[in-house]
Every structure is written in structure tokens, then in C-alpha cells.
Amino acid sequence: MRICVHRLLLCMMLVGAAELLSHSVMAQTTGVNTPAGQVLNLGTGGTTYMTIGVNGNVAINTSPSAGVALDLRNGVDPNTVLQLAGTGLNTTQLISDTNLWTTLKNVSAGPLVFGTSNTTRMFIAASGNVGIGQQYAPADMLHIGAGTTTVLGGEAGITLQTGNGSGGQRSFRTYVSITDFNYHVKDTGLGTDAFTIQYGTGYVGIGNSAPQSLMSIGTGTDAIVNGIANQRVDINVFGQSDLYMHDSTDHTNTRLTAGAGFGEVGTTTSYPFYIVTNNAVAIAVLANGMTQFNGDVGIGVAPSATYGLDVSTYAVHAGAYYHGSDARLKTDIRPITHALDKVLALKGIEFNWKQDGRPDMGMTAQNVAEVFPNVVRSGSDGMMSVEYDSIVGPLIEAMRELKAKDDQVVARQRATSHQLEIENARLEAEISDIRKSLVALKKTP
């Protein structure tokens, strides 16, 4: 049953007055009243449809209930409807139906408006679009904040908050800033931006409120990991996952792969892969697998400015080592003099390393420095190292000097041997002559 309020009040007054007169009820100057302790019943055809209880609560098609100012029931229609209609075209209904639904709707073509302090707070247009902080014409199914309407201090936002569990309350707020017009998702507990989309560029920031590229992950004091500022950002993946980065022409594709027990980083095309430090290429991995190092390298130890390659272990295995030695790379080329004397000044020794007691043999850097100081280098810790390969040159020249001396000895020996051979031939000739003379003497009578 639908009841128009203004007609309902008129019926209440007319029917109530007639019933009171028939029961000799006393009329007061302030209105129509029943004696103390009695209810006021209003109805038609001998049937009561409305009752005003002794406490002033009103009931329609039911009895007044304590604490319920107006209890409206419908005894015939399955739905209970309260309808408000103004002098215009809009008609608003509040309906309680058999589906246990409670519905508030505008049955005409107008909007449904909610407000506080005489100000519109929510607007449901005839199209079904909802505006919050928008007085009219919401542009989408849900439109929060627009125009000059002030919402949440000038920022249209939504806050999602958990209950007060064992870890306390946790909340995130998503909003569009009125100062930078960016879209933010803020961790309200930490007071920092967890996610930002920059207005005008579309740049995305994760842990970065001012992204400077298509995606900026954690930078400056905005980089938050586990609540600690200025820490690295970890990307965790489970199973095998691939992250691809492409250039604008799709020529160079960089892939980061996390698999079960392994990780990969590199390119998927024939272009080289670079490792850059201080905005310069430090390591280049070429398409053929060759690796180019453009700085000091440490394996198992921090790189030293003294050495291009610093290895923490004693042994390094390789098929071959090649050293740059082209004559075009050198100047002031001259032979090594007194090489034999210099080599003889070196002392070969056997020893054990203090670190692990491993037996070895070689020389001491201090001894080599006395003879060949240019092949000895001191590190930042003062420890001395020897470039053993450079001693090959003196060893070769020492052998050459030995060979020259040996050749001189051999030449002298050969000359002496030749003189001895001549002298021996002469003596043999003389001995032969003597023998002949003795034989002749024996034959003389």
C-alpha cells in the first residue's frame, strides 16, 4: 500500500476527531488527545490502520513498539512502501520487500541526492552513475571529487583499512593530489607513497613519489623496504619468471630470468650486454661470448687500483695467457745488458705459504726488486708482487750471453785442437823419418 504523507495527516485529523467525539473524548486547546494511559486509534470502516501509542510512537498496520518512532507495515501488498512526492515531478520511495531488501529509490527521472549540513555529499544520477563530492553529472559509474567541490581537504581519495587485529590497524589511501595532480597510493602507517602515477607523463613510481622514467622503483629517501629508508628494492619471483626490457626499436632486448636454482641476465639478440659503473661501460659481453673488461676486476676479493685483475686464490687455470707485445706498442727498444749477472743475482727458493702451509717455489719480491725493480709492484696494503713473465726477457739474454761465452770457449778449443793436430802431424813425420834412418843403419855392413 502506498500512503502519501500529506493526505495521511489529513485523514488522521478528520477520522481521529470523529472517533474522539463518539467516545466523548475531551478536546484540548493544543490538539486532539486521549485520556492518560490510552492510545489514539485511527481507521476507516471499523478497522484501525494507525495507532499513536501512549509514548507518542506511531504504528501503521501494527501496534506501536518501544523505541520505534514510526513503524510502517503493509497488511495487503507484499511490499511495504513509504512514498514522498513533492509538487514537482520527483517521487521518492522507501521500500521493504519480501526479499528482505530495503530500497530507497527515485521512481521518476530525477536523481537521488544525499547530504549533510545542507550540502550535497553524494549524487546518484538517473543514469546510475554515482558522484561523491560531485553535485551533479558524475562522469563515470563512480566519480569521486570534481570541479570546485572540496573533498577530503581538496583531494579525492579512498582509504582501505583493516580491523584492529593482532598487528594493529593497517590502512592504505588512494587519492589524486590537488597539488601535483598525481595519483597516489599511500601507506598511511608509514606516511610514504607506495605507488604513484604521474599526471601528464604516465610515469609510474613504486616507492617513489616523483618518478623520472616510465617506471621508477625506489629512489632517494622514498625508497622504503621493510620500513627502512634508502635500502635496495628486491623483486621476488617464484618458479621461472622472465622480465624483459625493450628499446624503442625493439633491437636490444634485455632479459632477467629467475628460475629454479639459477638466475640469468643478458640480451636475447645479437647485441652486446654491458655492465656499467659510474655511467661508463665496465664489462662488455659480446655476442660471440667474448668478455671485455674496462676497469679493475676482483675475483673473490675487492678490485684493487694497483692491479687490473685481483684473484683471491693462489691458482688460476687457463688454456693460454697472451700479453700485448706488439713492437708498435713500444718505444725506446734496447737490449738487456749484463743479463747473466742480473739473473745470477736472483735467488731461487723453496718455501711454504703461511696462509695454508702449501709448499711452493720461486723468489721473494724483495730479492727481485733489488735486481729488476720495474717488475715489482706494491699494493695498497704494502704487500709486494712480482711480474714473473717479465723475467723471461733477462733469462733469454742471459742464455744468449752464456751461448756467446760458450762459443768463445769452443772456438778457442777448436783453434788449440787444430794447432795440436798440426804439431802432432809434424812429430809423426819426424818419428817416421827417424825410423827410416834406423832401418838404414841396421842394413849397413
Descriptive report:
The chain is α+β, with helices and mostly antiparallel strands and 445 residues long. The protein has three domains: 5-110, no CATH class; 156-294, no CATH class; 334-445, Arc Repressor Mutant, subunit A, CATH 1.10.10. Helix content is 19%, strand content 32%. The chain contains four helices and 33 strands. The protein has helices spanning 5-22, 339-345, 365-371, 392-443; strands spanning 27-28, 31-32, 40-44, 47-52, 58-60, 70-72, 80-85, 91-96, 102-106, 112-116, 119-124, 130-132, 142-144, 156-161, 171-176, 183-187, 192-197, 204-206, 215-217, 224-225, 228-229, 241-246, 253-259, 262-267, 273-277, 280-285, 291-293, 297-299, 309-311, 349-352, 359-362, 376-378, 384-386. A six-stranded mixed β-sheet has the order 14-15-16-17-18-19, with no helix packed on it. Helix 2 packs across helix 4. The longest helix has 52 residues, at 392-443. The radius of gyration is 54 Å and the shape is rod-shaped. The chain starts with a helix and ends with a helix. Mean pLDDT is 77; it is low at 1-15, 20-29, 146-152 and 220-238.
